[in-house]
From TrEMBL:
<feature type="domain" description="HECT">
    <location>
        <begin position="971"/>
        <end position="1320"/>
    </location>
</feature>
<feature type="region of interest" description="Disordered">
    <location>
        <begin position="459"/>
        <end position="488"/>
    </location>
</feature>
<feature type="compositionally biased region" description="Basic and acidic residues">
    <location>
        <begin position="185"/>
        <end position="195"/>
    </location>
</feature>
<feature type="compositionally biased region" description="Polar residues">
    <location>
        <begin position="126"/>
        <end position="135"/>
    </location>
</feature>
<dbReference type="InterPro" id="IPR044611">
    <property type="entry name" value="E3A/B/C-like"/>
</dbReference>
<feature type="compositionally biased region" description="Basic and acidic residues">
    <location>
        <begin position="358"/>
        <end position="367"/>
    </location>
</feature>
<feature type="compositionally biased region" description="Basic and acidic residues">
    <location>
        <begin position="324"/>
        <end position="333"/>
    </location>
</feature>
<dbReference type="Pfam" id="PF16558">
    <property type="entry name" value="AZUL"/>
</dbReference>
<dbReference type="InterPro" id="IPR035983">
    <property type="entry name" value="Hect_E3_ubiquitin_ligase"/>
</dbReference>
<dbReference type="InterPro" id="IPR000569">
    <property type="entry name" value="HECT_dom"/>
</dbReference>
<dbReference type="Pfam" id="PF00632">
    <property type="entry name" value="HECT"/>
</dbReference>
<feature type="active site" description="Glycyl thioester intermediate">
    <location>
        <position position="1288"/>
    </location>
</feature>
<feature type="region of interest" description="Disordered">
    <location>
        <begin position="126"/>
        <end position="224"/>
    </location>
</feature>
<dbReference type="GO" id="GO:0061630">
    <property type="term" value="F:ubiquitin protein ligase activity"/>
</dbReference>
<feature type="compositionally biased region" description="Basic and acidic residues">
    <location>
        <begin position="163"/>
        <end position="178"/>
    </location>
</feature>
<dbReference type="GO" id="GO:0000209">
    <property type="term" value="P:protein polyubiquitination"/>
</dbReference>
<feature type="compositionally biased region" description="Basic and acidic residues">
    <location>
        <begin position="140"/>
        <end position="153"/>
    </location>
</feature>
Length: 1320
């Protein structure tokens, strides 16, 4: 499974998820629907009270978790753990254990961070973490704590004690009063000593001009031979590590610590985290702070204290460093007067960012500071505890949505007329930008939050920020006056403030999507991306039937161009709506379904995803990635049976409910359409097929641009789409979810089998593919599309889904033929298998599924042999179990490799036995059997075990009889050995078998076996195809021997000059023959007649009147018509029973009601029942030499080409692959040109004779002409000799004749008299 990283925390970071979300809720800005939104859109607006549904909070939390992961990995890589038996590959302790006594070099900071970022960026990053306790991190010299004797007594720290929020708030309130008097005294002191402040500032600047970089250095042993140290240890690379967020913070702390030791007047200030800041006033107002434990008494606060404000860049990665800018406390207090600090409140009471209207601000009630003592701070409803609202949020807090009454709420009207509550503002957060949290020591990660005066803006990581506006805001804060009157401060800190919850859309209708996408495009706030096309112009936009497009309501006052702030407000709301709707299953399914819960047609879903992915692709794909995480949640029915399901539910913090199988299939369908929409638009289906073919090789482009199937621009656009990090991440999680859902379905069906009271659950992939067949469903299109676009789209979706499955498989593949059945690879493979099963309804061919990338990287000899012994299980599968991934010629290579391996094993076993016998009973003084007669008798008995070849001695006049006698009762180990044929030696032929004699033998043997005069087979007069004779008089053992002849030929890699219908090969592969197209090649006239009967329209006449067929199957056997009524009997009479049985006399007629059954029954009787005994005997002989599993690599067409070869002969292709020996100019020689001129005019029979004369076979081998050896060798200059050939090597010995007519005559004479061998 693929899970998010929200549960990964650093072992030194006690911040819980509840505390983090509470802090982000108080700091993040809340998007609201702008005022100029159309009324139709306002109807969909809803308020959100869950922090996890706010896009800005989601981004910040993910960045926080990512930083935690990176730091965890850095500690793991550099320092290891405390376990001595650690087996985590990236843990330093594991490296030390595996190295033993050998030295182990530690990663430096830069290389460790680079590796950590890569590992944390994976889809399931927590799997690589070491779960043992982290090893202590060595402290550098510059970072070691000062000894107590070197530190003044008033700077020494005491142990940190936890302090509850009540006492903390009392100390703060008292400190604020003392702080005001102290500020007045300091103000007068600053006026009396201007010169001294100036000189002191100069000294401070001179002291701090060069930062102490030693605080960033870590102890590393020096090794001058280390390449890593010589490269990464240079100053240039060290600077990269100095600029990380952690080291910048350490550097700032080291400067503050050095300055603190030189300051004179320390002052302790209580912070909101329960610690103290010891401050000293430096000339010119420069301050430094040191944290101490919080005492129980009140301590005055220094109003000139400086605070760090984190300004986030809206266009940064998750691990981008934060930029910190310092401002004085006076600036913060002054800025806070306009945006008061916010305490933890209920979600309905929490404030918005800067969307408070001026008129509502004037109505706020001024309340003295002491007026809040009787009230308590509240938290968001999803984060509040019931024990004590003022206590810090415990770590074990579970985010549950609760509704509680709000006492301190005054109803007001929001900007859109909705009744919104107003809350009292607490002053506890005014003096510090930090949130109330549990008191802890220094954490590995410290969340840096903005004060409410400068709340974070919700920026998309993919959208470019307006840096000038951000810098202008910071400069404005700096330029504000440094002092604020007490009266103003009191009056501005106390009043209440109207707050509004963040808003989103309940779901996205088609009109809403069109409006929001148009707004992003017109405002220019859409995301810059690499998908193509970058945007949709008017020619590509489509509209819903009878719908009116929505538009913004622009008044006269707002008729000018939109301000950037308004555009930003629209962008923030649109991003929030996209994120909220697409991340939740219920809103997603509602957006892409009609009122009855049925999904839109596939082209409408694709178009809507196309619109959204061209304006905010990163947001869309990331939101769908979050949605895909809900697919891993087990159904509730599994909780009662399996403990792991209960544990998963208890560990799952998401509030989303488990999806049903149907809902999961709909969500997967929508996500798949989003992936399809990421691909570039093409103009026709040919481009789709070509690009799919190119990517099946694992390439972006085939060869050079001039020879590529498609232009380089389109290839690169495809590469951009299929290598995009977010799209690939979504595809990986989606296919991993598919494999998980299929496991859930198997478990549910297992329970159904036990209970037997429910229907079995359908496979999720079958449900998904069922929605893709929109033409079969008859679903009317929601959006108008031209017919040519709809024709293109029905090929686009399945083709691109296949491309995505292939992309994930190639990325996840580890180079082995055994692959996992789950995870991203297993889900992608299962998806491809389901599409292959439904390929005909999806208008796909076998070529769409071939992935040449695998075949090019697998061993063609060892891998097929290992596959024979591989047993498929729930964990692993083998690639050869999915043969459609490979080219047919590659499968033939694997098949022959299997046969060659078995042949080689039998040969070596016989050879070893022969050597053992020879050394045991050899002649000589030490022989165990001195009697020669006994030795010969023993040799004769052991000949079967010791013979290295299977030798058949065949007379040319009795080929079939001698073949039967030679292979009858042979042991299997004999048939497995290499075959040698001695043909016609009794007649004086001198054929030495190097392959050509075998071809001649099988040609003669199979021709005699299939002769209709023998009564075993029949030959169709039109197609010349052979089929079994129903009720044949020949015994069944002869059919078995004929099957063995075919098996021997295939086992030895030879083709047979025979033509069987594809129905035979379907039966050999255990596939049913039930359709008319299954018999159309063998019985074309019968297939046409049955098709006419099946499609007949009775408007032109009744079926029984027009066709006059009876419901029976009839065959003519040796001049006698034999019929049986189909349906009453289930077997065909054999030859001995023909005369004793009678034909039916009252068989019913075929009518309109039973014609469908008649067609199905006739096909079944023709291909099965009537020839069942003969076929079973033939099948037994066929598998005498061939492994049954090995032919499962083939489909019927490929198996037919393996047995019969390819009958079509292309002379042009044959000429292209022909080699020439001894002709000087080769193909340009006059005799060669005359030869091809003559052959080009041959008919099909003469071409076959020529091919048989040269290669001993009239068929082209599997794979085409490139696998054929055809050579024309010059054989002197003489008009008296005929052409000859070496059939074993495919060489034609052609003399150089004087003219073209002589060549024509001699070649025709040789082809007509080519029987027999001289030397083969």
């Amino acid at each position: 499974m693929t899970r998010d990283t929200y549960r990964v925390h650093d072992d030194r970071d006690p911040v819980s998820d509840a505390e983090m979300y509470a802090s982000l809720w108080a700091a993040a800005s809340f998007p609201r629907l702008p005022d100029d939104a159309p009324p139709e859109l306002k109807k969909f607006a809803i308020d959100i009270d869950d922090p996890k549904r706010v896009y800005a909070i989601h981004r910040a939390s993910r960045r926080h978790h990512f930083q935690i992961l990176v730091e965890r990995y850095i500690l793991q890589i550099r320092y290891g753990c405390q376990s001595k038996t650690c087996n985590t590959a990236t843990c330093f302790s594991c490296r030390k254990r595996l190295a033993g006594a050998a030295p182990v070099r530690r990663y430096n900071a830069t290389s460790a961070r680079t590796l950590a970022i890569y590992m944390a960026s994976q889809d399931n990053p927590e799997q690589g973490l070491c779960h043992n306790s982290s090893a202590p991190r060595p402290v550098p010299e510059g970072k070691r704590p000062l000894k107590s004797k070197d530190v003044p007594g008033d700077l020494r720290t005491t142990p940190v004690r936890p302090q509850d929020s009540r006492s903390r708030r009392r100390s703060i309130e008292t400190g604020q009063k003392i702080e005001e008097d102290d500020n007045d005294a300091k103000e007068s002191d600053r006026k009396d000593k201007p010169s001294s402040r100036k000189s002191s500032m100069g000294d401070a600047i001179s002291r701090r001009a060069w930062p102490d970089l030693t605080s960033l250095e870590e102890p590393t042993p020096t090794d001058h031979r280390s390449f890593v140290q010589n490269v990464f240890g240079t100053v240039a690379f060290k600077m990269l590590e100095w600029l990380t967020p952690r080291n910048l913070d350490l550097l700032a702390r080291s400067e503050d610590k050095n300055a603190m030791l030189e300051e004179e007047s320390p002052a302790d200030v209580v912070l909101m985290d329960g610690s103290k800041e010891t401050k000293t006033c430096v000339e010119k107002g420069k301050n430094s702070t040191v944290k101490e434990s919080a005492p129980a008494q009140d301590v005055p606060m220094d109003d000139s204290r400086r605070t760090k404000i984190s300004v986030e860049s809206g266009n940064h990665s998750l691990h981008a460093p934060e930029t910190t800018i310092e401002h004085s406390q006076e600036e913060i207090a002054q800025h806070s007067s306009s945006s008061p600090e916010i305490s933890y409140t209920s979600p309905s009471e929490l404030p918005t960012s800067t969307n408070t209207r001026p008129d509502s601000r004037a109505e706020e009630k001024r309340t003295p500071r002491g007026s809040n003592q009787g009230s308590h701070s509240k938290r968001p409803s999803s984060l509040r505890t019931k024990s004590d609202p003022l206590e810090p949020v415990p770590k074990s807090l579970v985010n549950k949505m609760t509704s509680e009454p709000m006492a301190d709420v005054n109803p007001t009207l929001s900007s859109h007329g909705n009744s919104m509550p107003r809350c009292k503002m607490s002053k506890t957060l005014i003096t510090s930008p930090k949130m109330q949290m549990v008191d802890t020591g220094p954490a590995l990660h410290e969340l840096k939050f903005l004060p409410p005066a400068r709340i974070l803006e919700s920026e998309s990581p993919s959208l470019k920020d307006d840096e000038s506006e951000a810098s202008h805001d910071v400069q404005a804060i700096r330029n504000k006056p440094q002092s604020v009157p007490k009266e103003t401060r009191f009056s501005q800190l106390a009043p209440e403030r109207q707050v509004s919850l963040p808003q989103s859309l309940s779901y996205l209708s088609i009109e809403n999507i069109e409006l929001l996408c148009d707004i992003l495009q017109s405002d220019g706030t859409f995301e810059k991306h690499f998908l193509h096309p970058e945007g949709l112009d008017e020619t590509l936009k489509r509209q819903r039937n009878e719908s009116v497009p929505l538009s913004r309501t622009i008044s006269i006052q707002n008729s000018f161009p939109y301000l950037s702030s308004v555009k930003q407000q629209w962008r923030s709301f649109i991003e929030q709506s996209f994120f909220d709707v697409l991340s939740r299953p219920e809103s997603l399914l509602r957006s892409f379904s009609d009122d009855k819960g049925r999904l839109f047609d596939t082209q409408t879903i694709w178009y809507l995803m196309l619109r959204m992915t061209r304006v905010a692709p990163s947001l869309v794909f990331d939101s769908l990635w979050n949605l895909a995480g809900t697919l891993f949640k087990p159904p509730h029915k599994l909780e009662a049976t399996y403990e792991w399901a209960k544990e998963f539910q208890s560990q799952e913090v998401s509030s989303q409910k488990a999806l049903s199988n149907h809902e999961a299939a709909q969500a997967i369908n929508i996500c798949l359409h989003a992936l399809v929409a990421a691909a570039p638009l093409v103009s026709d289906a040919r481009q789709l097929a070509n690009m799919s073919r190119i990517r099946s090789y694992g390439l972006a482009m085939r060869g050079r641009e001039a020879s590529s199937l498609e232009p380089a621009t389109l290839c690169l656009q495809y590469e951009d789409a299929f290598t995009n990090d977010l799209t690939v991440r979504l595809a990986r999680r989606l296919f991993a979810a598919i494999s998980t859902r299929r496991r859930f379905t198997e478990l549910l069906n297992l329970q159904t089998d036990i209970r037997k009271d429910e229907k079995p659950q359908p496979d999720v992939l079958e449900t998904v593919l069922g929605t893709l067949k929109f033409l079969d469903l008859g679903t009317p299109p929601i959006i108008n599309f031209p017919d040519d676009e709809r024709d293109l789209h029905e090929k686009r979706v399945p083709t691109l889904i296949l491309d995505w499955t292939r992309t994930v498989m190639l990325q996840e593949w580890e180079g082995a033929a055994e692959v996992p059945s789950d995870g991203p690879f297993g889900g992608a493979l299962a998806t491809m298998a389901a599409i292959y099963k439904n390929r005909k309804s999806l208008l796909l061919g076998d070529i769409h599924f071939r992935t040449e990338y695998f075949a090019e990287r697998l061993d063609p000899v060892e891998m097929p042999v290992e596959w024979l012994s591989f047993n498929q299980n729930k964990r692993n599968v083998h690639l050869l179990d999915y043969p459609y991934l490979f080219n047919p010629s590659t499968l033939v290579t694997y098949f022959r490799a299997i046969n060659y391996s078995r042949m080689n094993q039998s040969f070596e076993a016989a050879q070893a036995t022969s050597r053992l016998i020879y050394h045991t009973i050899a002649e000589g003084s030490g022989s165990l059997m001195p009697d020669k007669h006994r030795r010969d008798r023993l040799y004769e008995r052991l000949r079967t075990a010791a013979s290295r070849f299977t030798v058949l001695e065949i007379r040319r006049d009795h080929v079939l009889v001698d073949t039967f006698n030679s292979i009858w009762r042979r042991e299997e180990r004999e048939l497995m050995r290499p075959l040698k044929i001695r043909l016609g030696e009794d007649g004086g032929e001198e054929g030495l078998d190097s392959g050509g004699v075998q071809q001649e033998f099988f040609r003669l043997a199979i021709a005699e076996a299939l002769d209709p005069d023998y009564g075993s087979f029949t030959i169709d007069s039109r197609t010349k195809m052979a089929w079994f004779q129903p009720g044949s008089p020949e015994p069944l053992w002869k059919f078995e021997l004929i099957g063995m002849i075919v098996s021997l030929a295939v086992y030895n890699g030879l083709n047979l000059p025979v033509t069987f219908p594809k129905a035979l090969y379907r039966k050999l592969l255990d596939e049913e023959v039930t359709e008319l197209h299954h018999i159309s090649d063998g019985w074309p006239d019968l297939a046409n007649g049955l098709t006419s009967l099946f499609e007949w329209d009775e408007k032109d006449g009744l079926v029984e009147d027009v066709f006059a067929r009876t419901y029976e199957f009839s065959v003519e056997q040796f001049g006698t018509l034999v019929s049986r009524e189909m349906g009453k009997v289930s077997q065909w009479p054999q030859f001995a029973d023909i005369h004793s049985s009678t034909n039916p006399e009252d068989a019913p007629l075929v009518t309109n009601e039973n014609r469908n059954g008649y067609v199905s029954d006739y096909i079944r009787w023709l291909t099965d029942i009537s020839i069942r005994p003969q076929f079973e005997a033939f099948k037994k002989g066929f598998f005498a030499c061939i492994d049954r599993r090995s032919i499962s690599l083939f489909d019927p067409e490929t198996l037919q080409s393996v047995v019969e070869g390819i009958q079509e002969i292309d002379v042009s292709e044959l000429r292209r692959v022909t080699r020439y020996v001894g002709w000087g100019g080769e193909a340009t020689h006059k005799t060669i040109r005359d030869f091809w001129s003559i052959v080009k005019r041959y008919d099909i029979e003469q071409k076959r004779k020529l091919l048989e004369f040269v290669t001993a076979s009239d068929r082209i081998p599997v794979g085409g002409m490139r696998n054929l050896s055809f050579t024309i060798q010059r054989n002197g200059v003489d008009d008296g000799h005929l052409p000859t050939s070496y059939t074993c090597y495919g060489i034609l010995l052609l003399p150089e004749y004087s003219g073209k007519e002589v060549l024509r005559e001699k070649l025709a004479m040789a082809l007509e008299n080519s029987k027999g061998f001289g030397f083969a």
